[in-house]
Write a structure and sequence with these properties.
The complex is a heterotrimer of chains A (about 600), B (about 325) and C (about 350). Chain A has about 600 residues and is an alpha+beta fold. Chain A contains 18 helices and 19 strands. With about 325 residues, chain B is mostly helical. The chains are: A alpha+beta (about 600), B mainly alpha (about 325), C alpha/beta (about 350). Chains B and C meet through α9 and α10 of B and α2, α4 and α7 of C.
């Protein structure tokens, strides 16, 4: 199979909600020769212009922004190589699942195509009120949102409360509630009532948190786990293991513009208009009358079908060969946008890279430009100079594409003079490592993994490190090596990270906070546990004011970059393809189509 | 004969138990991802993983898990739920069977209609131009990977992305009960692609069988009786040459009913093979177990039918 | 009396990858109605190919056939396939060496008999054909024929199978039966029964028989006339009495000495013919038998002997380059128990022309 890896859904590796497209880009080596500036994507997307790391001078790409010329009506046709995992808003944690979930369910807050960095009230009536101690968050919901038939009643604060209760129900395994929703009493609730949630009236819900996490908690209310679920309907289903609210989404109650007409696991789903949905309560234009989505099949075939068709949207990314064709001949059907990053973690807990100067030397010696080339060149990303990515708030404050002007990150092709300098500082005056620690490099065994490993290896060898290469399947790399702390892997050069929502906390906390280190499925591959950074993250996560918050997180990014826990490789760009006539609108934060904004014409 | 069949059926049951046990053991010994960790999401607390492990029943010992699984399976024909998308595995498999059966039966018809006549003509006119060309072509068809053939077929002949727009393309599969015409149209190309290597194999097999049979003494006897050559070939030659092919056909059908993974994938036919493939890449034990058992079931049952059928085809086997 | 079958200068060559096999090389034979012609020779002598060619069973792309085989004056060699099929199994029938492999394993004996009958009696109904098949089984001595019709060949014993084969061959009352080593694969006791059966049926049906065999014992039992074949040719032929009492060809002498006879003295040693049959692709020059002949003279390697009458008797012919008188003296020695070397020493050395 040509594109086996693209079939691997995100959650499998426990880290990438959107691995699919990162991996497709990864095999885009064929387009390496194309000389063009990276990504940036759509013209009307403010994320691309604001992202200093993504100069948007690729002209002629599809217009994937909203437009006043869009018209109502018709059937939107969607295809994807992958099937869905969980369409239950409590469990949904996968890029393409979000397309259907955000069209049928309304979280408290949402990112929209026009507001890809700042969540706007969705079911909520206005911005969250965060207490000054950051431990209480109060949300008012719209009073006039109705559930779909047959329930057909008004959505109440208890429905939201129940949604959070079930986020902690073992029968509704949620992938992030434990990280983002530190509600008092939640950890012991097992799906029962949570003492930290109260509903003073039918439109008000109050969350009491175990820490002063309110500012970040409020950001995470944009995840589908905050979407209301009617207790009367779902509680009996949630007693089953697994809950049938997930296995048969047609049984759900919907407050979004669409509801399921039919669903066939891994094969097809059909969305039709929710008759009880009132456009006045929602920012979603909901142009299409009907959405028909067929899943499964070979990604190459699907991408070609999409390019050949007038009206298809493909929900997962085109494989490299089709991406190349699309770029050369059907640019107007192609979207490229930035999401997530790749870096080579340097394990700070074991020799030799428990030494800061040796880490800086390793970064200085690395040819990051070569890394970008083997991944597919400028079409799939730009060389990163720090960690926070272009699509996240705080990027500009962190110096944009230039970064912090550190000498060991200055040359994208590597600088041996700088590397030697740090080797000397580390106590190796010859510039060559003479210690006896071996560098174990574990990476994906499928292309371009081995090439990436070789690039990192050659940098290390130039500094005199003894290296051992261990190519394994990407999934195994995460589960048995890089994400398994006891394995003590020195370098993981083929790992990547995508934030759950466009907030610097989501971008930086899990990969670099010492508090996020867990024995299994660990994402802090560098095992970085720097009290100063941990504390800076804690305080930055409490900042509510956007400007101050961005500054605080830019500072965290700087501290991390100075701690050199990884070689920043690339800020990744990902592609999408669409039919020639359909107006696909991109949800930049999810880097996928927004079905409520896309229109047939 | 009755006792023989009973003995064989008992064997089938035992074999299925062994297959299921082996699948369990392989799943737990080979290094793949921990399903609980997969489900737990990013950077999970150990408690969350433990909780999910308990929910999925993975905290019990492997023999105990196996016991529970088999108990449910035997008593309730319950294959459990997919770790991946929580669907009941039995429903998933049963709802995908029609597609797999459609694909299999159609392909069988195609490869018999194509392969057998070519095999017969090649045998009768062995070393002729026809024989050399068709056997050369058969060798190519056997060596062509079906996935590649499928892609080439789509790029050349599908009516959406093909150069010559003849057949319905990938993802057009329609159930036979929904629309017979579209069902047929959507499966034509998959049938041809799946049947290609089989047709080639059967043509070669029948050719060599028939050539061998036609040199048998009883063929000489048949000719000595004054039978027309056509009757010698069809009644006497084919009767013997086809017998081993019927047995192989039974096994092939059994294997394909377990899922033609690659063909189903490239043409996006929602069959059992597709399900099995997804199960494997997702480390989804209940789906893997269910599809493997189903596949094994079809194969051993096909084997049984073939063995019993052979006794009817070849009287020499019957009494021994 | 006109012979029923007259074979005239029959030649059969097979093109193989190694070269042309001269399987039958100018054979002429005749068999009269009700009579038995024994064709004897080692394997590879062309005797079976002769029989098969008469049936048209050697026709094919690799075979080149010339000469004539006239049945009632109609040449079977040039006859069309369609006409020949009307003769096969109808006027001429054939039985083979191994009855197990010669019967189709997947059809009952009854079906195979019925098929043979219906092929030449297309209007015969199912019941009639079955009755006829049962009648034939009775005729060949198979007990309980009605139920045996439904048996498969593998359920029969070897002798029974050959009886069934004979029943099938004779179901259309052919005028000529070609029996190709019909007893070779059978037990000795069964052999005699089968020969007896053939003899009886031949008398009943007034049928001519060509008995192809390597076994002179069988010939002695059945034949009226005998043809001895070697390397695709007839080297001697004549009435049975002449062949057994006054054989003229050294090869015939060899054959006679290589079989046990009840009449021979007990201590008389059996003398197999030394050497192996020649390759039919590169046959020895001159007399084809010369490499194995104990009495060979240099000239025999050059000259190809022709079949000539013995003592002016057209009924007994031999193809040997030795002088008639020499042959008679040699046979005299051999008949009195002398070994070939002895006979050669006694007869040929005085003549002064001894091969080293």
């Amino acid at each position: 199979m040509t594109n086996e890896s693209s079939q691997v859904p995100t959650k499998e590796i426990g880290t990438h909600m959107r691995l699919t497209k990162l991996t497709s880009a990864a095999v885009a080596a064929a387009v390496a020769a194309l000389a063009l500036a990276a990504c940036g994507g759509s013209s009307s997307n403010n994320n691309s212009s604001a992202g200093g790391g993504a100069p948007a001078n690729v002209s002629g790409l599809a217009d994937v922004g909203t437009s006043s010329s869009q018209q109502k009506g018709g059937t939107l046709n969607v295809v994807s190589a992958e099937g869905w995992e969980h369409l239950d808003p409590g469990q949904s944690y996968f890029q393409i699942d979000y397309l259907a979930v955000y069209a049928t369910q309304r979280p408290l807050y949402s990112f929209t195509p026009d507001s890809p960095r700042q969540a706007v009230p969705d079911l909520a009536a206005g911005p969250p009120q965060i207490s000054s101690d950051g431990k209480t968050v109060t949300v008012k919901i719209k009073p006039n949102v109705k559930w779909s038939p047959p329930l057909s009643r008004t959505v109440t604060s208890d429905d939201v409360k129940y949604a959070f209760e079930r986020d902690f129900n073992p029968n509704v395994p949620n992938g992030y509630a434990g990280s983002y929703y530190p509600i008092v009493g939640a950890d012991k609730s097992k799906g029962g009532p949570i003492s930290g949630i109260s509903t003073p009236d039918t439109t008000t819900i109050v969350f009491h948190l175990t820490s002063n996490f309110g500012a970040t908690f409020a950001q995470a209310l944009s995840l589908p786990g905050s979407a209301a679920v009617p207790r009367s309907l779902a509680s009996s289903m949630d007693k089953k293991n697994p809950t049938t609210y997930d296995s048969d989404p047609t049984k759900q109650a919907f407050d979004g513009p669409y509801m399921y007409q039919s669903y066939s696991s891994g094969r097809s789903l059909t969305l039709v208009r929710n008759p009880n949905w009132d456009a006045k309560t929602d920012f979603r234009p909901a142009y299409a009358d009907k959405i028909v989505w067929k899943a499964g099949g070979d990604a190459n075939v699907l991408a070609r079908q999409t390019l050949a068709s007038p009206n298809l949207l493909m929900a997962d990314g085109p494989p490299a060969p089709v991406l190349k064709t699309a770029y050369q001949t059907k640019k107007s059907q192609l979207s490229i946008a930035t999401l997530g990053d790749y870096y080579a973690s340097l394990n700070t807990s074991v020799p030799p890279f428990n030494n800061l100067n040796l880490r800086k030397a390793a970064i200085a010696a690395a040819n990051r430009q070569a890394y970008l080339q083997v991944r597919g060149g400028k079409l799939v990303g730009t060389v990163a100079t720090h960690f926070l990515g272009p699509e996240v708030p705080g990027f500009a404050e962190a110096g944009g594409a230039k970064g912090f002007g550190l000498d060991y990150l200055k040359s994208p092709t590597g600088d041996m003079t700088v590397a030697k300098k740090y080797m000397k500082l580390a106590g190796f005056p010859s510039g060559k490592y003479t210690g006896n620690a071996t560098v174990t490099i574990v990476g994906s065994n499928s292309d371009p993994g081995p090439k990436e490993m070789a690039i990192v290896q050659s940098g290390m060898q130039a500094l005199g490190f003894k290296t051992v290469l261990k190519p394994v399947p990407q999934q195994t790399m995460y589960s048995k090596f890089c994400g398994y702390v006891k394995a003590h892997i020195t370098v993981c050069p083929t790992a990547g990270w995508i934030e759950d929502f466009p907030d610097p906390y989501a971008y930086l906390f899990v990969p670099f906070s010492g508090k996020a280190i867990v024995p299994v499925n660990n994402v802090n591959w560098a095992v970085l546990n720097d009290p100063k950074i941990n504390a800076a993250m804690d305080s930055a996560s409490q900042v509510t004011d956007p400007t101050a918050r961005n500054k605080a997180w830019a500072n965290v990014d700087k501290l991390i970059t100075l701690a050199a826990p990884a070689i920043p490789e690339i800020w990744a760009s990902n592609a999408l393809v669409k039919g020639s006539q359909v107006h696909g609108v991109l949800d930049a934060w999810n880097d996928d189509w927004n079905l409520s904004f896309s229109s047939v014409k | 004969m009755g006792r023989y069949i009973i003995r064989r059926v008992l064997w089938v049951v035992l074999l299925l138990f062994i297959v299921s046990a082996v699948t369990f053991v392989i799943f737990y010994t080979l290094p793949s991802a921990d399903p609980a960790a997969l489900r737990a999401g990013k950077s999970p607390s150990p408690q969350l993983i433990a909780q999910i492990r308990h929910t999925l029943g993975l905290d019990k010992s492997v023999p105990e898990q196996y016991w529970i699984y088999m108990k449910k399976l035997v008593l309730h024909f319950d294959f459990g739920y997919s770790f991946q998308d929580s669907q009941p595995v039995r429903t998933e498999i049963l709802s995908r069977l029609p597609a797999t059966i459609s694909l299999t039966i159609g392909a069988v018809v195609v490869w018999l209609l194509v392969g057998l006549p070519i095999g017969v003509i090649s045998a009768i006119r062995s070393r002729s131009f026809f024989d050399r060309v068709s056997m050369g072509g058969a060798l190519l068809a056997i060596s062509a990977p079906v996935y590649w053939l499928g892609l080439v077929g789509l790029y050349l002949f599908s009516n959406d992305i093909g150069i010559v727009k003849i057949f319905d393309g990938a993802g057009t599969y329609t159930g036979i009960t929904d629309n017979v015409g579209r069902w047929f149209g959507s499966l034509l190309l998959p049938w041809l692609v799946l049947a290609a290597s089989f047709a080639a194999f059967y043509a070669r097999l029948l050719r060599s069988n028939l050539i061998e049979v036609m040199s048998e003494d009883y063929i000489r006897t048949a000719r000595a009786k004054g039978l027309p050559e056509r009757r010698v070939i069809w009644r006497h030659g084919m009767r013997s040459a086809i017998t081993p092919i019927v047995t192989i056909l039974g096994l092939d059908i059994g294997i394909l009913l377990g899922g033609a993974i690659l063909t189903e994938d490239v043409f996006n036919i929602p069959g059992v093979g597709h399900l099995a493939y997804e199960g494997i890449i997702n480390a989804d034990l209940p789906v893997i177990q269910g599809t493997v058992l189903f596949g094994a079931f079809f194969i051993v049952v096909a084997n049984l039918i073939v063995d019993i059928g052979y006794a009817f085809l070849d009287p020499r086997v019957r009494y021994s | 009396m006109t012979p029923l079958l007259e074979i005239d200068d029959l030649r059969v060559e097979f093109a193989t990858e190694d070269g042309v096999v001269h399987a039958v090389d100018g054979v002429s034979l005749a068999v009269e109605e009700g009579k038995t012609l024994g064709v004897v020779g080692e394997s590879g002598s062309g005797k079976s190919v002769t029989g098969l060619t008469v049936m048209g069973l050697t026709r094919g792309r690799s075979a080149t056939i010339s000469g004539q085989a006239r049945l009632d004056g109609n040449d079977l060699i040039t006859m069309s396939d369609r006409d020949l099929r009307g003769v096969r199994g109808n006027d001429i029938a054939m039985i083979f060496q191994d009855p197990l492999s010669s019967l189709h394993p997947f059809y009952t004996v009854g079906k195979q008999l019925v098929e043979a009958y219906q092929t030449h009696n297309p209007r015969a109904g199912k019941g009639e054909s079955r009755d006829r098949a049962a009648e034939m089984l009775t005729l060949v001595g198979i007990p309980d024929p009605a139920s045996r019709l439904d048996s498969y060949p593998h359920e029969f014993s070897g002798g029974m199978r050959q009886r069934a084969m004979i029943a099938m061959a004779l179901i259309n009352e052919p005028r000529l039966l070609i029996a190709d080593e019909p007893t070779t694969a059978l037990d000795v006791t069964v052999q005699a029964q089968i020969l007896e059966l053939i003899q009886r049926l031949q008398a009943d049906l007034r049928m001519a028989v060509i008995m192809v065999t390597h076994d002179l014992g069988v010939i002695a039992e059945l034949a009226d006339d005998v043809a001895v074949m070697y390397a695709g040719r007839i080297v001697e032929r004549g009435p049975k009495r002449a062949i057994f009492d006054a054989p003229e060809h050294p090869y015939t002498w060899g054959l006679l000495r290589s079989i046990p006879r009840l009449t021979a003295p007990r201590d008389e040693p059996l003398v197999p013919i030394p050497g192996r049959p020649p390759s039919l692709i590169n046959r020895p020059g001159g007399c084809h038998f010369h490499p194995r002949c104990p009495y060979v003279r240099p000239a025999h390697r050059e000259t190809d002997p022709r079949l000539v009458p013995v003592g002016g008797d057209a009924g007994h012919q031999v193809a040997c380059l030795l002088a008639e008188e020499t042959r008679q003296r040699l046979w005299g020695e051999l008949r009195s128990g002398a070994l070939p070397e002895q006979a050669r020493a006694d007869v040929l050395e005085p003549e002064g022309e001894v091969t080293p």
